[in-house]
Amino acid sequence: MDFYYPGKGKSGDLPPRSFIAKEYHPFYLSLMPKVQLTILIGQYSIDYYLGDKKQRNLTETVRHYQDYLPSFFPIVHPSPLNFRWQAKNPWFKADVVPALQAKIQEILKG
Predict the structure, then answer these.
(1) How far apart are CA 46 and CA 1, in angstroms?
(2) Fewer CB atoms inside 10 A, N or C side of the chain?
(3) Based on the domain organization, do 17 and 55 belong to the same domain?
(4) Are 61 and 71 part of one and the same domain?
(5) What residues pair up with 38 in beta bridges, in sequence order?
(6) DSSP of 38-81, one letter per residue?
(7) What is the pLDDT of residues 24-36, one digit of tens each?
(8) Is 0.90 topped by the overall pTM?
(9) What would the pLDDT profile of 46-66 be if each residue is shown by its tens digit?
(10) CA–CA dist 38, 25 (Å, integer)
């Protein structure tokens, strides 16, 4: 969502600068017309790209990743701060990660 790490805040990482996605993403995406899948990593990218199409929270959006295919694949941010979330949601590693791996393999094989 941004081109640099914004640093730590009181309860986690600071948010990305919002103008970056608005001003730069359309340009860079236009340079990549053959992109077949955008992996939405974390709440900020999910909010920006899915908007009102997302589920009621991050967990439900990730759980229903199939609803956003073939263009988008929402996942949680792979941060050490999310280990607790991943422990509470074992379906993520059991179901979502293999599905993402399979989708990437499918795209790479053409």
Answers:
(1) 10
(2) C
(3) no
(4) yes
(5) 72
(6) EEEESHHHHHHHHGGGS-SSHHHHHHTGGGGTTTEEEE----GG
(7) 999 999 999 999 9
(8) yes
(9) 999 999 999 999 999 999 999
(10) 12
